[in-house]
Amino acid sequence: MKKRGQVTILIILAIVIIIGVILFLYLKSSSTKENQGREYFEQQGLQPSVNNIQNFIVECLDITAKEAIIQIGFQGGYHNKPEKFFDMQWAFIPYYYYQGTINQPNKEDIQNELSDYINDNLEVCINKINFQNFKLSFQAPSTTTIIKPDEATFTTSLPTTIESNGNTITFNLNQHPVSINSSLDEIIKVATYITQSHLTDPNQMCINCITELAKENDLYVDFIAFEEDTTLVMILENRTMDQPYIFEFLNKYNLDQQ
Questions:
Q1: Are 143 and 119 in contact (CB under 8 A)?
Q2: What's residue 89's pLDDT?
Q3: Which long-range contacts does 29-35 make (Cβ < 8 Å, 24+ apart)?
Q4: What are the φ/ψ torsions at residue 88 (nearest 5 degrees)?
Q5: Which of 30, 230, 14 has the alpha carbon at shortest distance from 124?
Q6: Tens digit of each residue's pLDDT (9 = 90 or more) over 211-251
Q7: Cβ(141)–Cβ(127) below 8 Å
């Protein structure tokens, strides 16, 4: 039992390290892209135009939306902690199946979680738009997210007042929705098939069926022994992001019923 426990700890540690490295690489890449527009003006000592400021705001939504999709993947469709989850301190993994109970979020739930991420984090980026001749004032953001095949679209209401040289204009971000390449729609279908199959038989799954469904949607599925009674399900793809995209969740079984 001691050896099995040690192996489990090593597997969990390896998973945490892999996820952490991928997340670090992506966020580092996205942060660099986010700053390119502003840094050019800062390094050259130039003052941007009002149009540049508006573009920076839209770019903030674009970057924050990509970060939202990444976090949603690592946390199985969640930004806010669900009722059942495994805590990794810096992140968490939700349980989609927990000893007979289905806890999977539906697509609408995941859309709302993506919106919550935008609402909680967009201002961090916008507050970095800081130029001497401009003053930005804005209200709390309110986002609507739609997950569609091969993309997710984010529309954020963020009335912003831009003051410059005695002039004031209002910029409405909701007129500039952002669409991000994403396989979330396809991933949700595969995750739902896997989770719902437990209602028929919690101890058996049609692996060939899952493999074929994943192949049809250009995805990869891996099952990893997470703990003695728990399986980590990882759905992966490498076509929509700069780094491999991971969506994961846990299934916890009742060994006494097997």
A1: yes
A2: 80
A3: 29/242, 29/243, 30/63, 30/66, 30/67, 31/63, 33/63, 34/59, 34/60, 34/63, 34/125
A4: -105, 20
A5: 30
A6: 999 999 999 999 988 878 899 999 999 888 877 899 999 99
A7: no
The per-residue pLDDT for 9 is 47
Tokens of 24: 């670090």
Q: How many other CB atoms sit within 10 Å of the CB of residue 98? A: 18
Query: From the CA atom positions of the chain, what is the Rg in Å?
Result: 21
How confident is the model over 103-119, as pLDDT tens digits?
A: 999 999 999 999 999 99
pLDDT less than 70: residues of the chain? 1-47, 255-258
Residue written as token pair 């390094």? 43
